[in-house]
Every structure is written in structure tokens, then in C-alpha cells.
Amino acid sequence: MKIKNRNVIAAAGFVLSLSIMLVSSVTSYAAIKETEITGIEVLDNAIQIKADAPITYKLYRPEDPFRVTVDIEGARLGKFVDKMFPDRAGVTEIEPVQILNPATVARFNILLQSPATITPEVRDTVLVLAMNGDGKPASADAEESKMTDDGLAASDADDGTDTSETDPAAAEEIVQLLFNKTAGGAELVLKGDGAMPEPEVFKFEDRVIIDIPDISTSAPLPPDIAAPVKHISYKEEKDKLRVTIDFEAGAKASVAALDDELVVDIASKGISGGKGEPAMKTACQGEVKKQPVSFDVQDADLAAIIGILNYDMTGCNIVINPDDVKGKKITMKLLNVPWDQALDIILKTFGLEKISEGNVIRVVTKNTLQEEQKADAATKELIGIETKVFLVNYANVDKIKDSIDKAKILTSRGNLSTDPRTRSIIVKDIPSSLEEVQKLIVTLDKPTPQVLIEARMVEVSKNFDYELGVEWGGYWTPTATKSAFNLVGSTSSGATGINGSQAVTTVPSGTSGTTTPYFPTLVNVPTSGAPTGAFTLGYLNAARTLGLDLRISALESSGRGRIISNPKVMTVDNEQAVIKQGQKIPYSTVSNAGTQVQFIDAALSLTVVPHVGPDKSILLNIQVSKDSADFSQVSQGLPTITTNEATTQVLIKDGETVVMGGILTSTEQENENAVPGISKIPLLGALFKHNLKTITSDELLIFITPRVIE
Fold first, then answer.
1. pTM of the entire structure?
2. pLDDT tens, 646-664?
3. How far apart are CA 683 and CA 208, in angstroms?
4. Closest Cα to residue 520, out of 552, 480, 553, 484?
5. Exposed, middle or buried by CB within 10 Å (0-12, 13-18, 19+), for 254?
């Protein structure tokens, strides 16, 4: 019984332990379950953010009146990870950012079309951000709301009454440095013990330096960092803290102060705001994102609208004279228009002009622009004239002079001359014009590319001749005393019959031509040349009274030839080059001046003019010809000239080979000599005809290979 009781107690203990483990697992799972964003809807002057659980949020209003940041704590973005450009009134763009460390936060950076008051409201699992365009920011820098079990929002104030918040005290110390990996790169958060001051930021190609005034820190650096960030360090200096962040080349850094946090966002190369966008060149700052903008405003202040196109969006600093836009209102609706086009449309509407100076765009009236131009011209008139000599290394001096004249960069007092002997350009003008001339000469005076052009002309010829001939005749004499009877004629005295042609063969051995006749021929269609194979029959009996002279001859010949011509020539860009090799064939002409000897070319030649493009592609104007003397066809003792020529224009990449052209000539000829009628008899007709078949082909291919010689 004791043993059984012990077993029962042990089993009960196991069941109890398993139950505790299961309850703990369920509790842990419930604790780590995170909220997920399920929907984002943009209405006119309102944004609805939906989640699958009650929402805890914070609302930030940075110093920029056109920007709002909303953090939803413990939430993930779900499928909403790309930047959005709504076409509804009030909102220009929404940029989602997922933060994972030290806590999970779904952040939404909102760019407004005009300054507006943001009124947040929580409806069950929906956060509604309502906007009204009074231009005043929200009353508090940060608002927090948490859903209670009954679905209503509970205020942080215990009594539920409205309380006015005072500005938080300025931070004196950075208490924590947090490094977060984001979808578009990385993020460094410097958390202070109060409101973070506005930092001074210095951006470089692969580094950003942040000077934070009147603050210190003893917080440790993040233990783990990831690409695109390479190194993080800080140093306390007099009246400021300097933070240095090194990152990969091509990455972009942006810095923003949000309440008690200073956020440094590092976007990887080719990524901007979590989504890659095409880049474009501007006069302000090299490559910047080609950001589309949308406007739907009524009676909006013109200065505020132009202020939306700030540095973060355009890479340009925009300066406006308040007097030029004072009191001007604008009503417009633009959807997904490039920022530079939107700016041009706005300025043209109000008769304004823009002046780009470095990375600054100045917006002025036309009258202001004209006055500035007149003032500049008057100032130039007071500046002393200087003389400077510019040396030209590669370009043609006269062409450089023409380019300077056409550029119209000299003042009315300027003068320009050249010295071809020393390859110099002498310019007399004010210093600013001399600087412009210097820049233009540096741009134009570049080494002219050289091009090596190689041509290959391949000539392939084939011929085939097939010939079959036959010769035969007969002889019969009954007795030696009687006259002989030839099957066709005879060449002997006293023979009867029809005269035929000369015998095929010589007199057989042991006979005499005076006593024994030659064998005549009935059919005489031999091969035209010496046969390559033949056989002959003579007397058919010992008494030599019956003879058959038969010879069948066959001739077959074939030939194959290949000629490769490989001319090469080098020239500079846009200059003609000619290379030629061959013979001059003399011929005589008769005129009133007498007999004169003239010459005609029989040569291989290559004529080419190359044009090298910026991408090293080469446009060739090319002519290739090969003329040769054909002594097999002579007229009045002079050979004929066989000509092969191609002229074309082709575009080729550097080092590539292209088939410029080709000619194929094929000839097939059949001849038959036969005895009419009898030659048509099957089998037997072959003894009464001669066949000749000739096939010839000639093929010409021209290959071109250009190479740019650096």
C-alpha cells in the first residue's frame, strides 16, 4: 500500500508540474504577443491607423511645422513598410519606420501640405489624427493614451480634466545610446534626461559629425553595430558633445531632435526612407532623390508652400525675401509632381524667378533680378582689366577661340586673340571672366581619342567540273582480198562506205598504215581536255577482219581557294585615314597629243572616318575596296579589273567585331553535245552524247574591328 501511495503522489506531482509549465507557456506567449498594424486610410485632412489590439501611442511635433511623428508602442508595421504619397488634402507623404530595439515601435513620419493642428482620437483599435489648417501646432510636444478594458481612452491625469503642459526642461546629459537596425539601414537614438537641444550637423561622404551644445554623457557606446554603420564615437569638448559616426560610402545620414531623443537615421546606399527612389542631378547638391510632391490647398500662404520644398526633400536651401511674397495666397491641386517642376509652376504663376547659387535657391521678383543684373554689370565696369595667357595642349587653338566667342562669357571690354605658333590664347578681361575662360578651356582641351581600325576581307572561291565523253567507230572486211567496209567511212584506199572522221587510235602494233586502214569513228564527242580516265577497244578477232574502236573518257576537277586581306590603320577622332596597297596597270590612249601611257589602280584600300562617343561606342564612316587584275580576260592586251567594294556607316562598341557586308556569287552550268534522236534512247543513248557540268562559287566577307587607344 505504501508503494502504491507513493506512485499516486508521484503521478499527481508530475501532472501538477506539467500544468504549471503549460500555464506559464500560455502566459509568456500572451505577454510577448505584439500589436500589428492592419490598415492605414488617408481621408481629407485626417489619417486613420488601424491595429489588431488596443493602441498606445505618442505624438511628436518637431520644430518644422510641416512635420508630425507618431509612435505606436509595441506594434509592428506588417505589410505597411513602403513610403506612401496620398492624393488627399492635408497630407503630402507618410513614411513608416520599424524600430526593434530597445523596444518595438511602429513610427510614422508625416509630412503635411500646410501647418495644421493635429487632434488625436482613439476609437477602439483605431487611431484617428484629425488636422485643421489654423497653422498652430498641438498644445503638447508629446501625448500618450492607452486603451482601458471598456474601450475608452484614459488620460494620464487622475482626475480626467484638461491640464496644460509646460515645456520640458532642457537635457543636461545623454543617459542612453541605442542602436537599432531598420529595413532601410540603421538608426542611432541618443536619449537625454530632458528636451534635446537642436544640434549642429556636418555631413561628409562617409561620415557625419554632430555637435550637441551644453550637454555631456557617460553612457556606454552600443556594444553591437551593423551595416551601413562602421564606427561610433563621442568626445566631450568645451560647451558641447561631439558625436562622430562613420558609415559606408554612398549611405545617407539625417538627424532629427524629437522631444528627449536625438535620432540619427543612416540609410543604406540606393535607399531613401526605406524605399529606393530614382536620383537626379540638381545645381544644389549632386544626386538627390527625385521626390514627387502633392498639393491640395486653398488660400494657402505662398511662403509656407515654398517652404515645404526644404533641404530634406530637394537637397537645396531655399531663401525667400518676405517682401516679395508678402500677402500672396495660392490655391492649387498637384498630384505626384516632381518637386522642381512644382517649384517652377508656383514661381511662374506669381511672376517670380529663382537663382541657384551653390546649394542655395533664391526666390526673387523679376524686378529684383533685373536690378541685380544691372548692379553686377555696373560693378564689372569698375573692375580693372587683366591679361592672361592660356596654353592649349591638345585642341585646335582656333576652335577653342570660336567656342569662347560663342559662349559669350567675355564682357564688352574683353578682348581675345590667339598665337598658333605657341598654341596660346591671350585673353584680356576682368578676373571673373578670366576664371570662366579658364574653366571652359579645361573642359574643352582634352586629348583627342585615337582609333585603330582593322579590316579583314576574306575571299573564298570553289569550282567543280565534271565531263564525260565517248568516241567509237567500227571496221569489218570478210576476206583479205575484198574491199574493206567501214561502219562509217574510211581513210584507206579502195574502202567503201561513208567517210568518217580520223581514227581514234593509232594503228595497232604489227600492222601497217598502208595495208590496214585506221578505224573510223561513228561518234566523236571526247572530253575537252586530257581525260583523267579512259579505256579503248581495238580488233575483236585474230584475223583482224572485225574491229571496234571505242574509247570512253571522263574528266573531273575541283578547286578551293581562300584569300585573306587584313589592312589596318590608326587615326584620331573625326579625322579621315586612308591605307592602300596594290598595282597600277598601264594602258595606252591615243589623242591629238599623241599616244600617252596612263595607269589604273588595282589595289586594296581602306578609307575610314571614326567618331568616338562618350560611352566609347564608335561610329564609322568606312569604305573598303579590293580591285585586282584578271589576266584570264584580256582586251587589247590589257587585263580586266575585278572590283569588290563596300561603303557604309556602322555603330560599334570598342573592341567588338561586326560583319560589314558580304557578296556571294554562285554559277552552275550544264552542256550536252549529242547525236540527235539516237542520244535519247535509254542506256544506248549514252554512246551518242557528251556531258559537261561546271559549278563555281565566289564569296566575299568583310569584318571590321575598331579599338580606342587610350
1. 0.39
2. 888 888 888 888 888 788 8
3. 101
4. 484
5. middle
